[in-house]
Amino acid sequence: MKRWLKMVTGIVLCAGSFFWADTGCMAQTVLKVGTATQPDHIYNQGIKHFESIVEAKTNGAIDIQLFPAAQLGSEREMVEGLQLGTLEMCLTSTGPLGNFIPDVKVFNLPFLFKDRATCYRMLDGPIGNDISQKFLAIGIRSLGWFENGFRNITNSVRPIRSPQDMQGLKIRVMEDDLFIISMQSLGAAPLPMAFGELFTALEQGAVHAQENPLAVIYSSRLFEVQKYLAITGHFYSPAMLLVSETVWQKLPPSQQKVLVNAAVVARDYERGLSREADQNLEIKLKSEGMVISHPDKNRFTQAVRRVYTDPRVMKAVGGGDMASGKALIERVRQAVR
Questions:
Q1: Gyration radius of the chain's alpha carbons
Q2: Which of 178, 191, 175, 200 is nearest to 75 (CA)?
Q3: Mean pLDDT calculated for residue range 210-238
Q4: Cβ distance 172 to 216 under 8 Å?
Q5: Which residues contact 19 (CB under 8 A, 6 or more apart)?
Q6: Which of 71, 120, 312, 326 falls 20 to 30 Å from 27 in CA-CA distance?
């Protein structure tokens, strides 16, 4: 009898708590956020900052739960989960996103951005906003452009000082045709592969090389299976904080506003971490035994010039429409000048 009374009391209290939510204390909503990077990577530090803001501003009504290291699937699988409504949020590189919104591929052009200020002006301006809005058509909402940073090349074969040193290197790239075409233009042999498979592939010699920002190289301990690091900065790698539109529409406007504002603050915080990583991690990677080179970027830039006018690239950026892709590439090139 006492046990039954406790159960009834518990139900009444829960019901009372839920009713009180409508007058100022919302019932808790859990939002799982997936990433593919290791726990100490800047993505996850950015999400933890986002989490602290959201939970404080909603008095705990929203519980952000972070799942790093591809626990919820590869980046592509997580994006598909957002579409299905089986996952609430993810922070992903642009690697798989071009398969959903082809326009995103334009940011994967080699040596497109000369510095971060240009990146931010592009991503946070009209072009970045136009592309972000297109995700709504596939059931996903963008909460802003975060970053992975400028990408650099590592390998286990030889130092890279010029494009000629890229000849024949089997290099893992993200699952994007612009990455593949760009590496082919340098004479390398690109192999698209999910990031979760990379360390083992390098360790076993299935690929010789890979390219990633310093924060990824360090946090994923790629220095254990890669000897040489070339500071090429050949791609700038933005990232997107995405939320399932199905989930978004279930949130009250007050909570949506909190998420939007928190994302802006977390974005700027995470970008700052990325800048710090580029300043500090080269020294740390050298201390781990990596041999570091600083190639002449002009030689690399010249080697990939034809990528910008490659019909395959224009068609890819335009989602099959070469004219549309060409127009977007030109619009971006004009904007970064």
A1: 22
A2: 175
A3: 97
A4: no
A5: none
A6: 71
> Domain limits at 160?
30-336
The pLDDT assigned to 95 comes to 87
Residues in the chain: 337
Express each pLDDT in 76-99 by its tens digit.
Answer: 999 999 999 999 999 999 989 999
Average model confidence (pLDDT) across the chain? 92
Any idea what the CATH number is for the domain that residue 297 is in? Answer: 3.40.190.170
Per-residue pLDDT tens digits for 124-161: 999 999 999 999 999 999 999 999 999 999 999 999 99
Residue 3 falls within a domain, yes or no? no
Query: Does residue 11 lie within any of the structural domains?
Result: no
- CB burial of residue 16 (10 Å; 0-12, 13-18, 19+): exposed
Residue pLDDT, tens place only, 307-320 = 999 999 999 999 99
> What token pair was written down for 117?
């200020």
The H or E element that residue 185 is part of is helix 177-185
Asked whether residue 10 is domain-assigned, the answer is no
Would you tell me how many other CB atoms lie within 10 Å of the CB of residue 136? 12
DSSP per residue, 135-158: GGGGTEEEEEEEEEEE-EEEESS-
Total count of domains within the chain: 1
Cβ count within 10 A of residue 4: 8
Burial level of 189, CB count in 10 A (0-12/13-18/19+)?
Answer: middle
Residue linked to tokens 């990577």: 41
Q: What is the pTM of this model?
A: 0.89
6 belongs to a structural domain:
no
Q: Does residue 43 surpass a pLDDT of 50?
A: yes
